[in-house]
Amino acid sequence: MTNGKISEQAVEMLNRAKAWWTTRLIDIRPGVIRIKGEPIENLIGNVGYAHMVWLMLRDEPPTPAQTRLLEAALVAAVDHGPQAPSIAISRMAVTCGAPLNGAMASAINVLDDIHGGAGQQCLALFQAIDSHAQTRPLDAAVQLALDGFVAEYGKVIPGYGHRFHPVDPRAVRLLALVDAAQASGEVEGRFARIGRQVEKALGERTGKQIPMNIDGATAVVYGELGFAPELARGLFILSRSVGILAHAWEQKNQGGRIKGPMPPDLGYTYLQDN
């Protein structure tokens, strides 16, 4: 500073610092908080959580129909019981003394490619099929995409079949909501057709019915709503975080110390070298 004035070098440094991070999401100044240009006080009490999720991720606010479908998908994936690895981890972490944030972080960290990534992988497959379908019939596009997927990743197709549910009730309900939205002209139904064609093709290939599961159904919803595959995983994590929090809190109130994945008296199998 010279004679009470900020030097040109200091101004340049300040401008560089302010330009280091750029965002179109939020504008915060003393007494002002705007989300995508909308004052936060206009949003509080007037829109729901699903609306805010959409508003943060997209360039335009959602229609009521889009909000309903997004909220349905978020509700559907909230929890799947204490044997789901992420849920079990949150409960075990609490019994090891972790606070809620530590339990949640531990659980969320395992929501990766195998446990938590199927929705992203399924939507990527659907989008590949959609691309192929621009130049060939849908059934041929499905076969082409499935061949490519199996060659690269193996025979397990994400979004289909379930280790516990012969028919996943969450998928049935979500597809019904997509069908209703299509009938009223709120979505195209393109990804619903793709998802069902994949289910048909898998049945023909394997000789048995392999129904769409929650990951496939949410991939349909997120595809119809125009979300990128990576966001399918992020949105799943937002949803499952509710279940993770609830189980961690329940376990905290139940008590217990250092609980492992199984009762200790059941033991485990020791594989001795011959």
UniProtKB/TrEMBL annotation:
Superkingdom, taxonomy of origin: Bacteria
Top-rank EC class of the record's enzyme: transferase
EC code: 2.3.3.16
The protein's name in its UniProt record: citrate synthase (unknown stereospecificity)
NCBIfam families: PRK06224.1-1
Sorted UniProt keywords: Lyase, Transferase
InterPro entries from the UniProt entry: Citrate_synth-like_lrg_a-sub, Citrate_synth-like_sm_a-sub, Citrate_synthase, Citrate_synthase_sf
Residues annotated as signal peptide: none
Family: Belongs to the citrate synthase family.
Lineage of producing organism: Bacteria, Pseudomonadati, Pseudomonadota, Betaproteobacteria, Burkholderiales
Pathway(s) per entry: Carbohydrate metabolism; tricarboxylic acid cycle; isocitrate from oxaloacetate: step 1/2
GO MF assignments: citryl-CoA lyase activity
